[in-house]
Automatic annotation (TrEMBL):
Secretion signal span: 1-22
Biased composition (Low complexity): 31-55
Protein name per UniProt: TraB/GumN family protein
Species of the source: Cohnella yongneupensis
One Pfam family hit: TraB_PrgY_gumN
Record InterPro entries: TraB/PrgY/GumN_fam, YbaP-like
Length: 342
């Protein structure tokens, strides 16, 4: 099964938190995965990309985190790329001095979305527009009976009976996205890396640029074919028991800031995706990574070549950075020099 905890959109955690709040349930009183904590060891269920972390040999020992930072030159304006994650632990702060210095040196901070400015009422209205079933059908009409039963049990344990039944009126992609994001609410009391950078930018008077919109991020999922939505839903309910392990590995990976581990994680994502999703993986990958990367690169290139004078930092999900369609490779193909800062 594809390990999707390395994926996701910046809105997903906020949407999951909204679902938990609507149910009136205190997430901290529940298992972070919505089910009993798995008894399998991290190494038993870890993807190959995280084997070094899962072994415990390279787990971070001291407070602070390195993250992923690249210097970009060759444009009219200098810039940085920073690979982020949308969650964080308290012990991941302070951030690496090189990363903090790059933020300080930048006049503009580009993010997927500025989550500090998201209007939750407007977001709820947008979700209703994009995800609600309005033709009289219900969620169980689109997924298998077994998958629906598993989903219902998982959601009852995490957001209560009322919360679980509320998802009957939503499309499979939304139900699945919420379920797979619920383990991340365990970390909601600590700002994710992208939120931290947004707050720091606002506090220091920098200009924050949004490379995407809430509507565009939700449209990616809403545009999935019915067949892909069914598979996405199936894989999410099947893998729910080990999701919390995956998030820990993701956080450890970012804390270490080892580029080889990030690249291996991307390779594993592609390999596992092709093995478990078959021909549908191309549709999934194009929606979640490839097409988004192309859109981001177009905007980044424009800012670096013809934007207002200044230094630009573009901080988006780490997996967007690597691979043949990653931001690093695409900017290099346009003639930029992109140097990873060790």
């Amino acid at each position: 099964m594809i390990r999707r905890y390395v994926m996701g959109i910046s809105l997903a955690l906020l949407i999951a938190s909204m679902a938990a709040c609507r149910s009136g349930v205190d997430d901290d009183s529940k298992s972070s995965s919505g089910v009993s904590e798995p008894t399998a060891s991290a190494s038993d269920s870890a993807p190959a990309s995280s084997s070094a972390i899962a072994s415990g040999e390279t787990e971070p020992k001291a407070p602070g985190s390195k993250g992923f930072l690249w210097r970009v030159t060759g444009g009219t304006n200098p810039g940085y790329l920073a690979g982020t994650i949308h969650v964080a632990r308290k012990d991941m702060y302070p951030l690496d001095p090189d990363l903090e210095q790059a933020v300080a040196d930048s006049d503009y901070i580009g993010l997927e979305l500025d989550l500090t400015k998201v209007n939750q009422l407007a977001l709820a209205t947008l979700v209703a527009k994009q995800a609600l079933l309005t033709d009289g059908t219900k969620l169980q009409d689109y997924v298998s009976e077994d998958d629906y039963s598993k989903f219902e049990q998982l959601m009852k344990k995490s957001v209560g009976i009322v919360g679980a039944s509320a998802f009957d009126q939503y499309e499979p992609w939304y139900a699945a996205m919420t379920l797979e994001s619920l383990p991340a609410t365990k970390y909601k009391e600590t700002d994710g890396i992208d939120v931290h950078l947004a707050k720091e930018a606002h506090e220091t008077g920098k200009t924050v640029i949004e490379l995407e919109s809430a509507e565009s991020q939700l449209s990616l999922f809403d545009g999935f074919s019915e067949e892909l939505q069914q598979l996405y839903f199936h894989q999410t309910v099947t893998g729910a028991a080990t999701a919390s392990i995956g998030y820990k590995q993701l956080l450890d990976m970012w804390t270490l800031g080892d580029l080889k581990i990030l690249e291996a994680m991307h390779d594993s994502y592609v390999k596992e995706g092709r093995q478990t999703m078959g021909d549908l993986f191309d549709e999934y990958d194009n929606g979640l990574l490839v097409s988004r990367n192309e859109g981001m690169v177009e905007k980044i290139d424009d800012y670096l070549q013809s934007g207002e004078a200044g230094t630009y930092m573009f901080a988006v999900g780490s997996l967007h950075m690597v691979g043949e369609h990653g931001l690093v490779a695409q900017l290099e193909s346009k003639g930029y020099t992109v140097e990873f800062i060790e």
